[in-house]
Amino acid sequence: MKFFDEVIIDIKAGKGGNGCISFHRAKFIPKGGPDGGNGGKGGNIYFISNNNINNLNYFHNRNTYISENGFKGQNSQCTGKNGKDLIIQVPIGTKIIDMKKKIVLVFLKKNKQIFLAAKGGNGGLGNINFKSSINRTPYKRTKGYLGQKKKIKLEFILKADISVLGLPNSGKSTFIKKISSANTKIGNYFFTTTKPILGVIKNKLSDSYISILDVPSIIKKSSIGKGLGLNFIKHFKYCKLLLHFIDVSSIDEKNNISTIIDIINFEIIKFNKKLLLKEQWLIFNKIDLLNNKNKLIYYIDKTLIKYKFIKKFYLISSIRNIGIKKLYIDILKYFYK
Q1: Which helix (H) or strand (E) holds 95?
Q2: Is the dihedral of CA 25, 26, 32, 36 positive or negative?
Q3: Same domain, 138 and 204
């Protein structure tokens, strides 16, 4: 299944019902006055956030949303029934943008937060409203008013505590599956992860959770559309910690540690340089394939001096469960200081 985090839809609130032209008729009142009622109000359109939804896939094959029209007025001064409101459910973390005005109407940050996006039209007036001393039998009414209509863009941003990034085949999906509930595909080929996947790390001591986000791999020139692009990096916005995975078997004279670090971070800077203000840990994965760990540690220490935003590094093997427990404990300590 594809993952949609941006969609454009049209919304149209209901039209108000028309007013009624009617005159009172009874057995002993052959010439009764006007009694036409007003039309009902058209239905509004609301957006409400729901913490059980984590994508915008529902909107992909349906792009027009219309609420019910108000009903026309009736005789005996009866107002027509109001049209039903339409309530559209979206994930927490959804921006609702007016495409015509180019403004953010609202950012739904909390569960069950509701927003009135389009108002239904008012109902028309029945002829009872036009009776006067000089016009006792008015044949006049007004039609219902149109409801608001808008072209809306929905932008959804996943909320995660930790985001994981790296070049293809760096082993991040294997690690996330090992320590969290995320259901990620694992394979030795480029772009195993093709959409953002959110998992949770359970803190057994306090029965609480830390959310961790797996995103598609970044490659050189992702910022200009290579590979799967960089649009998914917007989901890093709320995370506090970046885990940068490096496959130690990919390190050689041509691709030294600095080169690999710079490939990822250069692309991130192109997207949003503020992301480098977030704390970043380097995770050197697949150390079970390495013969000389001390030599690697020497080069890591020498390299990391020039990277102020990189605070720690770890040597792990997700496949062999090497270093996973220490990294897991340090993650808990970071979030539960």
Answers
A1: strand 94-98
A2: negative
A3: no
